[in-house]
């Protein structure tokens, strides 16, 4: 089981939920930059994310 956006309650459930952390401030800033641009922008934007492995991911899949 996994979640998205690494919300605070991901650690409040049992088992704790593996989640993908997305830098929402950076995503919002990039979206605003693209919206205000003159249309001559790159077509693919990459924003790094991070996987937060927790108890909902079986131990065999974790690199511990």
List the helices and strands and how they pair.
Layout: E1 2-4, E2 18-21, H1 24-36, E3 50-52
Parallel strand pairs: 1-2
Antiparallel strand pairs: 2-3
Structural class, please?
A: alpha+beta
Inertia-based shape: elongated
Termini distance? 19 Å
Q: How many beta-strand segments?
A: 3
Largest sheet: 3 strands, mixed
Helical segment count: 1
Query: From the structure provided, what is the oligomeric state, counting identical versus distinct chains?
Result: single chain
Radius of gyration: 16 Å
Strand order in space, largest sheet: 1-2-3
Helix-strand sequence:
EEHE
| Portion in beta strands | 15-25%
Mean pLDDT: 81
Number of domains: 1
The helix fraction, in percent, is 10-25%
Would you write up a description of this structure?
With 64 residues, this protein is α+β, with helices and mostly antiparallel strands. It has one domain. Helices cover 20% and strands 16% of the residues. A three-stranded mixed β-sheet has the order 1-2-3, with no helix packed on it. The mean pLDDT is 81.
